[in-house]
């Protein structure tokens, strides 16, 4: 028979699964409380890192429709429930695991798909969402910047040529005026 505390714990874990776009299952055997606190801080506010009971987590995962953790819930288990940028959280987890080998990344899920440990590492190797958006903005901005520079260069060239044409125009008109005066003088001399 389930106790009210266990029912409440399952409901909380189920809610965490449903509200998260990704989760990473880890084993934390050998980590100190201070190290776990450091990991939680490095994950940021959008990620909840919780030490969980395996049986209750298995029940909650089934209720949430997640099968990524079947057969993986053994030993001291903690889950990173990721509500924000999954790439940044995966990067924080893998970086922490590199410097603290006691943290073992077992499996995870991202946008409804199961991930093994190597897929979590591949997710961590991606660039962050902000960096990708900045790159797209740069790609979109480049043609507009090139067009603006071309139009500005054309404007400057026209201004330079317009100023030169205005300076040259009186000089060109003078010979034309002399040419029209010469036939008039010649006609006057003939008379």
From TrEMBL:
Keywords: Ribonucleoprotein, Ribosomal protein, RNA-binding, rRNA-binding. Residues 164-191 are annotated as: Disordered. InterPro entries: Ribosomal_uL10, Ribosomal_uL10-like_sf, Ribosomal_uL10_bac, Ribosomal_uL10_bac_type, Ribosomal_uL10_CS_bac. SUPFAM superfamilies: Ribosomal protein L10-like. One of its GO terms (cellular component) is ribosome. It comes from the Bacteria. Belongs to the universal ribosomal protein uL10 family. Part of the ribosomal stalk of the 50S ribosomal subunit. The N-terminus interacts with L11 and the large rRNA to form the base of the stalk. The C-terminus forms an elongated spine to which L12 dimers bind in a sequential fashion forming a multimeric L10(L12)X complex. Forms part of the ribosomal stalk, playing a central role in the interaction of the ribosome with GTP-bound translation factors. This is Large ribosomal subunit protein uL10. It comes from Arthrobacter mangrovi. The lineage of its organism: Bacteria, Bacillati, Actinomycetota, Actinomycetes, Micrococcales. The gene is rplJ.
């Amino acid at each position: 028979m389930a106790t009210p505390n266990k029912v409440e714990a399952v409901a909380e874990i189920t809610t965490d699964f449903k509200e998260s776009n990704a989760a990473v299952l880890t084993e934390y055997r050998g980590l100190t409380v201070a190290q776990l606190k450091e990991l939680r801080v490095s994950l940021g506010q959008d990620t909840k890192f919780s030490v969980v009971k395996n049986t209750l987590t298995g029940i909650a995962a089934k209720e949430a429709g997640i099968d990524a953790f079947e057969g993986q819930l053994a030993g001291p288990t903690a889950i990173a429930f990721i509500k924000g940028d999954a790439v940044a959280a995966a990067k924080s987890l893998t970086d922490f695991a590199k410097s603290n080998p006691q943290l073992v990344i077992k499996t995870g899920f991202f946008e409804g798909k199961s991930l093994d440990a190597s897929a979590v590492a591949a997710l961590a190797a991606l660039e962050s969402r902000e960096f990708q958006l900045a790159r797209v903005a740069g790609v979109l901005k480049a043609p507009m910047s090139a067009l603006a520079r071309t139009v500005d260069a054309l404007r400057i060239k026209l201004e330079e040529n317009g100023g030169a044409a205005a300076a040259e125009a009186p000089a060109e008109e003078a010979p034309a005026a002399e040419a029209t005066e010469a036939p008039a003088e010649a006609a006057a001399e003939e008379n």
